[in-house]
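Support request, please re-run this one:
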Amino acid sequence: MLRQDNCFSLRDGGAHQQPLILFLHIPKTGGTTLNKHLYRHCHTKNNDIAGNDYLHSGIYYFPFGFFKEPNSSLPPNAQQILSSDDLRAILGHFRFGVHRHVTRPWTYITLLRNPVDRIISLFCHLKLAPDMTLKEFVLKAPYREIDNDQTRRISGLEPALGQCTRSTLAQAKDNLHKYFSVVGLTERFDESLILLQRHFRWDKQLYFYLKNVNPNRPSRETYSKKTLEAIYDRNALDIQLYAFAQQRLEALIARQGQGFHEQLDCYRSLKRNALRTKDKRASQMGKLSRQHL
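Re-run finished. Output below.
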């Protein structure tokens, strides 16, 4: 049975106690950038366990890789770490359900991404074969990650490739509604970040981190209609889940008041200044390089 008693929300009156943040990082959704923000705002000091390379300053980098085998068991020593009072956040490519091994108040967060763009990014990241097309990748690659995997991971279920159903989608929506404090969107990362800052009452200034973006990734406009239709067909449930998350995000922003938009404008100003500084430094380095030719 799903353990619900430790599910935490700041709306429930626990304003002075921070829950353990469970960041369910779906591959190719911008989670690597969010990991940096979570480390900055959640890390502590001196609670690493000797001999464990996945625990750093109160942040546990869950050691499941990019792909996860069905019904995988917990890694060695994981239970000891998950029950630690000093733990502040768990980050990783796990699925819904890791909270069952946590003994203190917890809450999930995640990022969802437009399913078409996520699959294109996944295709470019994996590079299975030089001559494989995106359509072949979608139809033939033996990975569950190409098939409604956002729905699969959020649902906490383990359907095989091609076996996600409307029941899987219903479970994913129910989990998002009940157990996720913030469900952000890759395409609206800035707004998602401000919501996280406000919800968890982070008191440090937000930094701007360059996103982990492949500059050579083709846009969806470069692919044929049939190729895009193959992605739609394979990820129809993810498309519905993404729409559900969009509505949820809009509703959450609408409840924030004017202060939210002031914070957002301030953060975007920080981003613009950081990018201008980066471009200026790149230009200066280019000039120095040319002087030494």
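The chain has a mean pLDDT of 85. The longest helix spans residues 258-291.
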